[in-house]
Design goal:
With 365 residues, the chain is mainly beta. The chain has 2 domains: 158 residues, no CATH class; 139 residues, Immunoglobulins (Immunoglobulin-like), CATH 2.60.40. It contains 4 helices and 25 strands.
Length: 365
Amino acid sequence: MNRNFLVITALFISLITLEVNAAKWRECNGNKIKWGSNTVTMHASNVSFVPGSSFTSSLQTSINRVNDNPSKFNFSLALGDSSVGRNNNQNEIWFSNNPDILDGAPAIALSWRHCYWLFGWHYGIDEVDVVFNVATNYTTSMAKTSLWPFGGPARPFQTTAIHEFGHALGLKHENRWYNIMGQDWDHIHVNGNTARSYLGEDAADGSVHLYGATTGTMEDVSLTNFKYQGTSGEYSTHQPTRMYNSSDAVLSSFIDEGERRYRASKNQTVKLELTAENNGKSYQEVKIAYYISSNSTITTLDRLIGTGNLTLGRNQPYTFKRTLVIPGDLTSGNDYWVGAVIDYDNALGETVSSNNATYIPIRIN
């Protein structure tokens, strides 16, 4: 959630929201409203974020994931803030139960901006405070069994934090694509038993539109088993990707340990659906390989059942289907995982490679 405070100190303002590709931000007479510096420090409350605590560690991880973007912009984190407050000329982070701040939201980014003309246009972000609701059932664990998207009991703290830091970056909510600036808790990557939070392609692209591309190397492609579902007000909603038959009908399925497992037959032609993202600096043409595994961790050591290529610009996530044949020598009644590894030949030289593989569970008829 985002609440904005606009400082009006002159005769005339011109404030709009701009949408390019998918990311959204505000403009002031054609000028992007952003920070005046490419580095901004966020100060964490010494009460809410005690050094060495799991929430402090998760907060730093969330900032690192936002900084895994291909723009010139980065946040830094300072611990030990002993006096947090709104509109005090310092960017701060804390937990609160104050309904006047949170208005029922799980978290909020309070933003102070200016946009005015006084012998020339003046515009920018002045302060952002990120406040988390102490009543929200957050978890700092990224184990699948702990998390809402996989049937667990708690909201992932990291995805919510990244969403709010997206606002701090200058981005608005997004409801047209699979996006961290939409419904954050199921904008997530998983391979194996541990999930991973991340900024994502659309927000990464927005960061470049706001601050320009880094002069260094930052390339990253990824796969996830989530996709865009629809719209809930300002927010995109998401759902798991699916497994289809050759006629594009969804296979029958059941819930198994919080995830949907599809029923498939030996030698059946199926279509695997996944979402690919280019979170990096450059246009990419990458190789992708498809595997079947006896466990949920997909690697290049698993059984290869197909290969292909993907062309990925940096604009919005790409949800696609790939036709595959289930091997005929699998064991009926057993569970398997059909998945993929993008950039399986390591040709790209990625900054982040822990997000390259994911899966969909199946059971053999």
